[in-house]
UniProtKB/TrEMBL annotation:
Keywords: Cytoplasm, Heme biosynthesis, Iron, Lyase, Metal-binding, Porphyrin biosynthesis
Pfam families with a match to the protein in the record: Ferrochelatase
Superkingdom of the source species: Bacteria
Keyword Metal-binding annotated: yes
InterPro entries xrefs: Ferrochelatase, Ferrochelatase_C, Ferrochelatase_N
Signal peptide (residue range): none
Recorded GO MF terms: ferrochelatase activity; metal ion binding
This protein's name: Ferrochelatase
Length: 331
């Protein structure tokens, strides 16, 4: 299960998608009475045309990169797996309901579904909302099968090894610095997540998955540290930043921000920059447009010689094998 995309890069479809996305109380965590007018009246009308433009820059003949690449990963997993493998999305299509219906139709005796949220790191706006939504649908429509979840895996040795294998060939080309750029979050979300984590640790919250002991920002730093260790990167050759900030007045996001850092790196002597985005399993708008296009332009306009974007794990062999191994171990 991944995040999901609009049905097309047309403004009307992007508007519908953003409305669903931003009305999620785990994404915009204001009381619903404020959220509704804010999203419908202000955020979506202003954002949809710009997002639509960004989506059209990366849209493929066969659809949104995120959807197509998630499906390719599922197909690669299916090659090594006896049971049906499907993709579902938190927002837009295909919804978990549609996928559950199809699975049940194909096998009325279906006993168990294993859901793999394609987010290495836990936070309420990514991993948790996917799980909570799938659970709510599972309960509401009284599906007769049980539902199990793959836990967040930001520090799992197999995930770290798959990332290191993805990055290694790029290091051989020579580089001044490698930037680990993760999706950003409002600071407020971190405080809420900290509370959830301590309730989990006190036994006051039952989740159905293993909750990390540290918050999103610390999980991201830990992913960077482990990959750097695995690749023996010298301390001065890598950095961690946070991208995709939704600018809102009085709403600080976790720092440092990726975009301004791309513009100051050349003055710090970084001519050749590698960028990797470990919070995303599949390439999407945020990596292909924001980093590989806009970020590259910003860095190279500020005096950098070259920004080389390292694609996500997608359906790379070590990662596909890892997905297969983890799911088989849960059967
Ligand atoms: C308050 C706003 C947002 C939070 C919090 C947030 C967290 C978050 N998102 C991802 C993964 C993805 N986000 C993507 C796009 C995207 N994200 C937001 C807002 C928040 N995300 C918006 C409004 C959008 C839509 C595009 C835009 O208008 O800029 C995507 C890509 C989707 C695609 O179709 O390609 C992904 C993936 C994570 C992992 C996360 C928390 C860590
Ligand atoms: Fe996002
Ligand atoms: Fe973005």
């Amino acid at each position: 299960m991944n995040l999901g995309s609009p049905d097309s890069p047309e403004v009307k479809d992007v508007r519908r998608y953003l409305n669903e996305f931003l009305m999620d109380s785990r994404v915009l965590d204001f009381p619903a009475v404020f959220r509704f007018p804010l999203v419908r009246g202000i955020i979506t009308p202003f954002r949809a045309p710009n997002s639509a433009k960004a989506y059209s820059k990366v849209w493929r003949k066969d659809g949104s990169p995120l959807i197509v690449l998630t499906r390719q990963l599922a197909d690669a997993v299916q090659q090594q797996f006896d049971y049906p493998v499907r993709t579902a999305m938190r927002y837009g299509n295909p919804s978990p309901r549609k996928v559950f219906d199809e699975l049940l139709q194909a096998d009325p005796g279906l006993k168990e579904v294993i859901l793999f949220p394609l987010y290495p790191h836990y936070t309420m706006s990514s991993y948790e909302t996917a799980v909570a939504y799938a659970r709510a649908i599972h309960k509401k429509y009284k599906y007769p099968f049980s539902l199990k979840f793959v836990s967040p895996f930001y520090n799992h040795p197999d995930y770290i090894a798959a990332l290191a294998a993805r990055i290694a060939p790029y290091l051989e080309q020579g580089y001044d610095k490698i930037l680990f750029s993760y999706h950003g979050l409002p600071e407020r979300h971190m405080r809420k997540d900290d509370e959830t984590i301590s309730r989990y640790q006190n036994g006051a919250k039952d989740t159905g998955f293993v909750m990390p002991a540290i918050n999103y920002q610390k999980q991201c730093h830990e992913t960077t540290r482990l990959v750097a260790e695995k690749l023996s990167l010298p301390e001065n050759r890598y950095e961690t930043t946070f991208q995709s900030r939704l600018k809102q007045a009085g709403n600080e996001w976790i720092k440092p921000y990726t975009a301004p850092r791309l513009e100051t790196l050349p003055a710090d002597g970084v001519k050749k920059l590698l960028v990797v985005c470990p919070a995303f399993i599949n390439d999407c708008l945020e990596t292909l447009e924001e980093i590989a296009m806009e970020g590259k332009h910003a860095f190279e306009s500020a005096g950098g010689e070259e920004l080389v974007y390292i694609p996500c794990l997608n359906d790379s062999k070590p990662w596909t094998d890892t997905v297969v191994a983890w799911v088989k171990a849960m059967l």
